[in-house]
Amino acid sequence: MFEASQLVFYYAVSPVHMGAGSAIGAIDSPIQREVHTQHPMFAGSGLKGALRHHFNRAWPRSEGDDRKANSLINRIFGPDTGASDFAGALSLSDAQLVALPVRSLKGGFAYVTSPLALARLKRLALQAGLACDWTVPAVTENKALVCGTGLLTQRPGTTANAAADQLVLEAFEFSASPDANLQNASKWIATNALPTSASAFFAEKFKTDLVLLHDTDFAHFARHAMVVEPHVRIDDDSGTAAVSGLFYVENLPPETLMVGLAQASIERFKKHSRTIDSAALLSAPEVLAKVFAGQGDALPGIGGKLLQIGGDASTGRGLVLVQIATSS
């Protein structure tokens, strides 16, 4: 069905709330999570809806009727109404977790990942036809692999000239050592996920401050290192907090890195709607090019730009930087 694929990175610039729609426990509005790993995720349907909304604003309206969206949007994403007429040419997979920002004793925070997260990233990259000249390192529980020694401290009670081999993340201590395979992976990810000059600081930090934890240790942070914000509903008459008005909203923290696939097929059309003077059908590579690279100033693409996804947009939530991987 799909004839072209691209690897897409989503880098959170602000807290992101892609809601799960139901709550179990103390958090009233949790984020979306995979059922088997409990890692945060972005549903492909939500990403596609956010992209469509973005292009409805970014691309000029239909010629002759400025109330209608650009017809190219329907050609790429599918019809606004009459969904059975024809299928959209673009498909977005769910976005999976690559690295989480976790508070560190040194360096402010570290980008934390796991063998599972890196292996899934490499699988997607290979499916998109990218070359990955790095391997996924192995690590044991209560140990950590790092790209350099900048995040490490000396253990208490050691001599002044002892090597720094302790990593402190939040309230947890790990024995850590540098790893060349992880260095290679961090450089590849930073080059593809954060290639622009505006992201240069974070790209360099990613290369030096990526940490690999065992999947069991990483699972704790994937479950509990989220931003949980209390909200209060205000009574319009009294101007004070409404009765039972306190609720808690979970957000993915800024500086989180996610990844997914964008796939395309040749443009579809409604049966018997094609005529001799119809516009040529977009090929699968052309569909992806329209969405991510755009077509001049009139039809800007989303690659390298901010996309708003999820809820609480009016409070600055949901801003992610969209970037296409280009390694070959």
UniProtKB/TrEMBL annotation:
One of its GO terms (biological process) is defense response to virus. Keywords: Antiviral defense. InterPro entries: CRISPR-assoc_RAMP_Cmr4, RAMP_III_fam. Pfam families: RAMPs. Residues 11-320 form the CRISPR type III-associated protein domain. It comes from the Bacteria. NCBIfam families: cas_RAMP_Cmr4. This is RAMP superfamily protein. It comes from Rhodoferax antarcticus ANT.BR.
